[in-house]
Amino acid sequence: MLKSTHPAALAALVRKRWLIASTLSLAMIVIYFTFMGLLAFNKPILAAIVAPGISVALIVGPLIIVSSVALCALYVIWANKVYDPAIRALQD
């Protein structure tokens, strides 16, 4: 149970977590909707051939999935190194 003697520290930690989560979510939204925008409004860019049988879309599509995993990993690393220890410190 968190002690009520640290409300300012807890509020600061909650704000920081919200900022990190919002930033990473916004990054994913920008990545995804940029791809969707290109797909809807500028197909020739995605259709450009990079190598025989490989278009830009075949490279960028999987990169979107990889970017979502990377952003999730960033959050987990931050939570394990910063957030969880700070919560534990507030519990003591």
Secondary structure layout:
Layout: H1 7-41, H2 43-47, E1 49-51, E2 54-55, H3 56-91
Antiparallel strand pairs: 1-2
Helix pairs in contact: 1-3
Give the strand line-up of the largest sheet. Answer: 1-2
Number of strands: 2
Strand and helix order: HHEEH
- In helices, the fraction of residues equals over 70%
Q: What does the radius of gyration come to?
A: 20 Å
Spatial gap, N to C terminus: 9 Å
What percentage of amino acids are in beta strands?
5-15%
Helix segment tally = 3
- Give the biggest sheet: 2 strands, antiparallel
Low-pLDDT stretches:
none
Please supply descriptive tags for the structure shown above:
83% helix, elongated, 92 residues
Structural summary, described in words:
- This protein is mainly alpha-helical.
- It has three helices and two strands; from the N terminus they run H-H-E-E-H.
- The protein has helices at residues 7-41, 43-47, 56-91, and strands at residues 49-51, 54-55.
- A two-stranded antiparallel sheet has the order 1-2.
- Helix 1 runs antiparallel to helix 3 (56-91).
- The N and C termini lie close together (9 Å).
